[in-house]
Amino acid sequence: MPRVLIVDDSEIFRRSVRAVLESCHSCEICGEADNGQDAARFAQELRPDAIVIDISLPGINGIEATRAIRSILPDAKIVVMSLHHSREVVKAVKAAGANGYVLKSSADRDLVDAINAVASFYVSPSIRGEVVKVA
Asked: In which band, very low, low, confident or very high, does the pLDDT at 6 lie, cut at 50, 70 and 90?
């Protein structure tokens, strides 16, 4: 059962992500953070197997936090969440070292699959056709 750190500046969204992940009984939530600095610090302290992180965070954003976390935990699976449908954003997320990209609008449907599938790079099905050539 992977230990998951949830990072989002919205407490309501963090609660929603927690509920989705706990409902599938395949994840253990080991912590939560509301900004990029705490995300990196908690990643180092808690050593989660997976991190679900918002792209728009106060302080350092989710892309910068992903780079920092990747240097601390090279084997952690990182799934970035966003409202953005942009191919350029997905490319930047992947280049930062994330293992997946999930639209917030479909997180309730895609997040568990993303965490289970992040052996490679995961992109929400609703935008796969738009960003299929992100490499």
From this structure: very high
Edge-to-edge strand list for the sheet holding 100-103: 28-33, 3-7, 50-54, 77-82, 100-103, 122-123
The Cα–Cα gap between 114 and 107 comes to 9
The token pair that represents 62 in the structure block: 């989710």
DSSP category for residue 105: G
Q: Which fold has domain 3-131?
A: Rossmann fold (3.40.50)
Residue-wise pLDDT for 50-84, tens only, equals: 999 999 999 999 999 999 999 999 999 999 999 98
Domain positions in the chain are 3-131
Beta strands in the chain (DSSP E): 3-7, 28-33, 50-54, 77-82, 100-103, 122-123
DSSP 3: E
DSSP-assigned beta bridge partners for residue 29: 4
Q: Is 6 helix (H, G, I), strand (E, B) or coil?
A: strand
- What is the spatial distance between Cα 101 and Cα 122, in angstroms, rounded to a whole number? 6
On whether the CB atoms of residues 131 and 90 are closer than 8 A, the answer is yes
Global confidence as pTM: 0.85
Identify the residue whose tokens are 């992940």: 21
